[in-house]
Design goal:
The protein is an alpha/beta fold. Helix content is 41%, strand content 12%. Strand 3, helix 6 and strand 4 form a beta-alpha-beta unit. Helix 3 runs parallel beside helix 6. The termini are far apart.
């Protein structure tokens, strides 16, 4: 005999909540739900968020320009250069040249240059959980990026210029978090030489 389950019961079983903060006070019910979740096939790919990321990044760039114009229209926006190199023996010199040329073309005043060596991420991410997990350690764990944030926080720069988004993070959630942190907390922007790749027409 079939019993009717409420919509709340079905949601509780089919949509386990996974804490992004890694809570340790799980109940047996949470464990059972997580085990059930692991048996389900993970979604192949989340929808591309490139359009949203581009708009957010451009919004903070526009706001920085408007603030500059209100304060002193003749001052150029100040940017710090950042590069992520793939090995300790690699030098970011070619990136610096490209970033300098882009800064001059955009009318930015380029300040200090920072780089980090890419270290593969050691954190394990649950497939389809929505938690951000890039290929390399997140920017906020890198010393060079930490210096970028420190100088921006201190008011020494209006933004950061990088070659492409993958120098920051290849993961949409991590990248989105960095854009918002700089823009909302420090009123700073990210300028990419190579813009995010927008999804093609469907």
């Amino acid at each position: 005999m079939k019993t009717r389950r409420s919509l709340g019961d079905m949601i509780a079983v089919s949509s386990p909540r996974i804490s992004l903060m890694g809570s340790w006070d799980r109940t047996d019910t949470d464990t059972a739900r997580t085990q059930e979740w692991h048996r389900k096939p993970a979604p192949l790919e989340r929808p591309a968020r490139s359009g949203e990321l581009v708009r957010l990044r451009q919004r903070f760039r526009r706001e920085a320009t408007e603030r500059r114009d209100r304060r002193s229209g003749d001052r150029r926006l100040r940017v710090l250069a950042y590069s992520l190199v793939l090995s300790r023996s690699a030098r970011p010199d070619e990136d610096w040249n490209t970033l300098q040329t882009e800064a001059e073309q955009r009318g930015y005043a380029m300040g200090a240059r920072f780089h980090d060596v890419a270290v593969p991420a050691t954190t394990r991410c649950l497939p389809g959980s929505g938690a951000g997990c890039g290929v390399y350690t997140p920017p906020w764990k890198r010393p060079g990026w930490g210096e970028i944030e420190r100088l921006i926080r201190g008011g020494f720069a209006d933004g950061v210029i990088v070659l492409d988004r993958h120098n920051i993070s290849s993961d949409d959630d991590e990248y989105h978090a960095v854009i918002k942190e700089l823009g909302e907390r420090y009123q700073a922007f990210i300028h990419l030489v190579i813009p995010e790749k927008l999804p093609g027409p469907t």
